[in-house]
User: Which sequence fits this backbone?
């Protein structure tokens, strides 16, 4: 075909091309149907993160947490004022011991989750760091029980109790409350990175952009439709994921709706990363491998599988660089903790800046002539 013939074909295509909006909507519909019919994409984008959430919640425990084993050293008057039913509801089982040193040794060895002592108006709580989560949970439950009793004491004439505690950092969230935001952020990353990288590799292999230049669907409209479908997928992910997490015990706050704009913002960062990977990769298996190399380590340092504050120092620094960390913490704040959007502005700013930087890198490294 001569140059004149190709130019004539392009001019004829542009002349007969329908309006921008009908073409765009038709492309969105076609790409959406293509995604829903691709069982592999549905599994990796929707089902895989949900399966991990169910598995981890089952392992760490959600609402059915075993009672904490607590040693009461000597006389602890505050416990005598608490009804047995309140102690049972608090998830605590007490054993009386006389020797504080022996009790402390049992707590340090993990034979007990915590100990409690009282000297006058001062109550001391020490929980086991050896037992990890169960020790922290025991300390949190004990402090809550004593503080509840303290409120009743302060309502009457007299002096309130002073509570001192030691051990690991208090984490008042149930496992599902920090696992669900992390697993959702991981699912968003998978959808963005794998989706964009796979699309770029397919475009390079099939030379689809060149073909679109002589069709009513322009390259710009196709790319816009592809991005729109990616955003639709993450909104569906968010709704389904939070719904299932609520069934597993996640307490949704009044600000849960703000998770949608957060995941949309985070998606742009992951899409840009996927474009960079798709530019580097030559084949679909290569794109999948590189995407795994990015998303899996990112998930481990971003709190997807456990709380971020459990990371060691050097991994904590890496965690702050990861966009998944900021997406995870922002979702956790508005969904699990019920904090308003104004408290996550730092995470929003980082996600926006990261998306801009990754987009600029993708633009500079992308080879348009390969399409």
Assistant:
């Amino acid at each position: 075909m001569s140059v004149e013939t190709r130019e004539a074909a392009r001019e004829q295509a542009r002349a007969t091309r329908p309006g921008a909006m009908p073409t765009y909507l038709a492309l969105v519909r076609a790409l959406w149907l293509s995604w829903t019919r691709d069982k592999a994409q549905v599994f990796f984008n929707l089902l895989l993160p949900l399966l991990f959430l169910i598995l981890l919640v089952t392992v760490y425990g959600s609402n059915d947490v075993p009672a904490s084993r607590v040693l009461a050293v000597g006389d602890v008057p505050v416990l005598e004022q608490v009804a047995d039913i309140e102690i049972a509801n608090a998830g605590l089982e007490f054993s009386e011991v006389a020797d504080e040193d022996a009790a402390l040794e049992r707590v340090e060895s993990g034979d007990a989750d915590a100990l409690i002592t009282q000297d006058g108006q001062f109550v001391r709580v020490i929980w086991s760091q050896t037992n990890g989560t169960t020790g922290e949970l025991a300390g949190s439950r004990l402090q809550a029980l004593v503080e509840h009793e303290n409120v009743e004491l302060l309502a009457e004439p007299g002096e309130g109790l002073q509570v001192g505690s030691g051990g690991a950092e208090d984490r008042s969230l149930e496992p599902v409350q920090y696992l669900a935001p992390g697993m959702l952020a991981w699912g968003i990353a998978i959808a963005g990175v794998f989706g964009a990288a796979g699309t770029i590799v397919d475009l390079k292999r099939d030379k689809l952009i060149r073909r679109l230049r002589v069709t009513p669907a322009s390259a710009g409209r196709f790319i816009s439709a592809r991005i729109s479908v990616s955003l639709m997928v993450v909104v569906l992910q968010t709704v389904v994921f939070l719904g299932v997490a609520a069934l597993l015990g996640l307490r949704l706050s009044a600000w849960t709706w703000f998770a949608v704009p957060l995941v949309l913002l985070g998606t742009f960062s992951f899409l840009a990363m996927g474009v960079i990977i798709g530019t580097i990769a030559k084949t679909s298996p290569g794109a999948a491998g590189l995407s795994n190399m990015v998303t899996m380590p990112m998930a481990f340092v971003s709190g997807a599988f456990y709380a971020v504050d459990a990371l060691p120092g050097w991994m904590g620094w890496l965690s702050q660089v990861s966009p998944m960390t900021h997406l995870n913490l922002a979702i956790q704040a508005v969904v699990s903790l019920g904090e308003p959007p104004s408290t996550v502005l730092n995470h929003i700013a980082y996600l926006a800046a990261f998306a801009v930087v990754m987009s600029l890198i993708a633009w500079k490294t992308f080879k348009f002539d390969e399409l």
Notes: The radius of gyration is 27 Å. Residues 68-166 form a domain with the abc type-2 transporter like fold fold (CATH 3.40.1710.10). DSSP finds 15 helices and five strands in the chain.
